[in-house]
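Reviewers of the previous submission asked for a worked example of the structure-prediction workflow described in the proposal, so we include one complete record here. The input consisted solely of the amino acid sequence. No template or homolog information was supplied to the procedure at any stage.
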Amino acid sequence: MDPRASRRPRIVRHPAQIVALAFALVAAIGTGLLWLPVARRGEGAATFVEALFTSISAFCVTGHVVVDTREHWSGFGLVVILALAQVGGFGIMTSASLLGVFASRRLGLRSRMLTATESRGLDLGDVRTVLLGVLRVSVVVELVTAVSLATRLFVAYDRSLPSAAWEGVFLAVSSFNNAGFVLRSDSMTDFVADPWMCLPVVGASFLGGLGFPVLLELRRQFRLPQRWSLHTKLTLATTIPLLVFGWFFLTVNEWRNPATLGALDWWARPLAGLFQASATRSSGFNSIDITAMNGGSWLVMDVLMFIGGGSASTAGGIKVTTFALLAVALYAEFRGEPTVSVFGRKVNDRVVRQALTVALVSVGVVVVATIVLTEMTRAPLDMVVFEVISAFATVGLSSGLLVQLPEAGQVILAVLMFLGRIGPITLGAALALRERSRMYEYPEGRPIIG
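From that input alone, the workflow returned the following structure tokens.
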């Protein structure tokens, strides 16, 4: 062996590191393009912070904005934003899925056999399958959504066909990728009582938030739920109840609020409640005034944003499977059961520890950022918490604090968006890829708890 080989700089080879570097590179390219004078309406170029923040927000499919998207950016700038959202959503699903493949291949023989048995419906055995599968899903969902929205805009809102098509495509890509960007200054408030506009956006956001492995398995075995993998069962069993809970709570809590749902006809209020509950999961659109919502609604939205959507999806947060595993582990501990099991499957203790690690690290990031921004702005705590969680969970809803922040605060939120986008993915993969066996055990100890 060449002794000089040990002195050579180590090349980054860990898949999680490659994903993080690739995301940073694309975000930097997007920043450079949006910094060009041609990307901004009028004379001059956008500031560096405006370009950086918008690029990260678009590529990390968040939807946070520090400038008016329609009024500030030129046609070239809007195309760059749309491309960043599309590449970001595609990259997120493929990266997370491929990291899952790499992780399963690094497991021991027994674990690999169990994984193969459990994920028999996913067929994630090679890179080509993942790439083509994500591409097909993205094209079909976005095409159907774009046609539906463009038709409605053309027929009911007197838009020209090219204008309706452009806005329909932009909104469809933004919806499926949970990006939250809209070609309107007031987001979706113009369509608050229009189900033909709201429901396609809700549907595309919901599908994008499930994740490619779940969508692929549902396409192949939709009528055979008994054969679904544990991942699919956990994702659906958590996503749907959380959506229904958010819909019910926000609708009831805002029903008489004259600044939000109270100003609508009674039949439009459930639609607006559903739209906002769905947007809270990660898409970041709003059809009512977020800043005028009640404090209880903000708190529930904080929780829903932090949980987020499905793994290997365009949604953010700690992911519903992480939340579900922690809930199941708590239930097992309360019952005094020796192991954690769900849907007839025993959950490996290491997987539970990984879920706990992702959740606690995420909580730590949110707490630190909240302290920093609170000291920087002296803003009310509920506004800061909402803004921080929205950025970290890549949701894009705003409490109104974002436009008041100095550039340093906007940079902090940009960092949060980047960490929130790649953090749970890379951390989960890194923990899985570090699995190792030990040939000995320490003596057991029992510290006092509580």
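The first helix runs from residue 15 to 34. We consider this example representative of the routine output the project will generate in years two and three.
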